[in-house]
Amino acid sequence: MNNSRPTSDSRLQTQDSKTPPPLKKGDKIAITCPAKKLPAPMTDAIKLLESWGLVVILGETVGLEYHQFAGDDKQRADDLQRFIDDDSIKAIIAAPRRLRHGKND
User: Fold this and answer.
1) Which pTM was predicted?
2) Dist CA 30 CA 15 (whole Å)
3) Residue 51's pLDDT is what?
4) Structural domains in the chain?
């Protein structure tokens, strides 16, 4: 009887992982705030993404405030799930909670 447990390496080899295709002009990407509220607008980041030809869809949680969070638990979960369920969204970006000079710390 073999009581050995699989090593982490063998488990990784059996998982079916997929690499998504690269983003291309015209692809829709979503920005959502699944945790903390944004300290400042993401105007520069959105302009950069759009300059690459991407279509930016902002989640309902961008700009929401509920204490220190970007909406209550249900709002944040629903926002993220909406993008996960939308096959036209090619990438989901979780907005950073801290911005400094337009960059994430």
Assistant:
1) 0.73
2) 27
3) 97
4) 24-104 (3.40.50.10740)
